[in-house]
Amino acid sequence: MDAHLWMERRERSERRPRDVRNDYERDRSRVIHSASFRRLQAKTQVIGVREGDFHRTRLTHSMEAAQIGRGLVLHLQSRVRSHSAREAIPATELIETICLSHDLGHPPFGHGGERALNYCMRKSGGFEGNGQTLRILARLEKHTPEHGINLSRRALLGVLKYPLPYSQVVRLVPTTLQDLRLLGVKDAKPPKCYLDTEADLVEWILAPFTENDRAIFLEAEEAKGGHAKPRYKALDTSIMEIADDIAYGIHDLEDMVSLGLVTRRDWEQKVETDDRASLIGKDLRRLAHGLFSATSHERKRVIGGLVNRLITSANVQETKLFSDSSFRYNAVLDANSRAFLDVLNKLIFETVIDSSEVQTLEYRGQQVVLGLFQAFSSAPSRMLPGDSRARYEDALNPVEAERILCDYIAGMTDDFAERIYERLFLPNSGSVFERM
């Protein structure tokens, strides 16, 4: 595709005098300086932000994903130097922008908060964190009046993780419950999608591609007993997803080991006994010795080695159905590295995320979000703060009004959501001097 079309923005963006940055560097700056990016410092990654000051938050996770994404691009540029995919590999500053942006739409309390908002929005278009990311970047952030931070077309394409709308892929709409405390994990799991409110944006992103490429790219894949899901993703998105997986599987594991939540015994039972783990070609016991060492530098050495091993196993895979190289190629890890990373992700899930200690806190966060949505829905003109109240009152219909309420709650940090909940429901909490 012509470079001019890649760098095009929905709203004309004048350069300031003597600004020598390229368009993707300007994109990266806009993301870093956005309010939504700053809020990630107080949003849960795996462990709640109040549980300590050592472990990763959504902010540090996003920064590490961006660094890994940069490493993947540099590796791929070297690996495919004489390959037809060479010109399609993104610039490092572009992939950094996409990785830094990828979690902006996640609500307070992680997936518990996401399920709660999807339940609350069941009659108004649902909620999904990645879809909210696109909405924040293109509508809600205040760099421009109507187009958010007004990123370039290619940056937005990379952020478009799931290129199908909610209405096309949703299969299981959560039913109304008599008691919101009964809302379970599976009752409101959202589909992988963008929100229908951004349909015009996605149409603009995909406009330069051929009709055939667009038709194939927008194919859905049915899943038995669940939501449908998109079948394809763009090259830049595939690089971001690998960076995200490595940051989660390796760096979040480092946190869990350092905090004593994953032990040497867990490793022996769940990694060393899994045949997929041995495919990476390393002595797992020797690896474990460094990972669970009492000295931090030994653990860091192992973590760094694992990240390097995974980055350097990446290559490009071709799907000949497409004519445009942005769809024709995807980044993939080799089979052994992907299998090993899947084992580590499974270790974190089974040992930490699925533990009763984490699940009870996730449930509490889910209840906070449900309570806030119910309370604000009962009297939005009384309780919404300035800008959100004005947008709510200007809404053209009830569905749009409910989406604005959802935007406000989804943008809260964990701590802010808990303080507002306490203000509403606990005696002797809150003050007129505490800003909403």
What does this structure look like?
This protein has two domains: 342 residues, Hypothetical protein af1432, CATH 1.10.3210.10; 65 residues, no CATH class. Helices cover 55% and strands 3% of the residues. The chain is mainly alpha-helical and 436 residues long. The model has no long low-confidence stretch (mean pLDDT 88).
What's the CATH class label of the largest domain?
Answer: Mainly Alpha
Cα separation of the termini: 46 Å
| Unreliable stretches covering 5 or more consecutive residues | none
Q: Which structural class is indicated by helix and strand composition?
A: mainly alpha
Q: Calculate Rg over CA atoms.
A: 22 Å
- Residue share in helices? 40-55%
Helix-strand pattern: HHHHHHHHHHHEEHHHHEHEHHHHHH
- The CATH topology assignment of the largest domain is Hypothetical protein af1432
Give a summary of the structure in a few sentences.
This protein is mainly α.
Topology of this structure?
Layout: H1 3-7, H2 23-32, H3 35-39, H4 58-79, H5 92-101, H6 110-120, H7 129-140, H8 153-159, H9 166-169, H10 199-206, H11 211-217, E1 220-221, E2 229-230, H12 235-258, H13 264-270, H14 284-291, H15 296-311, E3 314-318, H16 325-328, E4 329-333, H17 335-353, H18 356-378, H19 380-383, H20 386-393, H21 398-410, H22 414-425
Antiparallel strand pairs: 1-2, 3-4
Helix pairs in contact: 2-5, 4-5, 4-12, 5-8, 6-18, 8-10, 8-12, 12-15, 12-17, 18-21, 18-22, 20-21
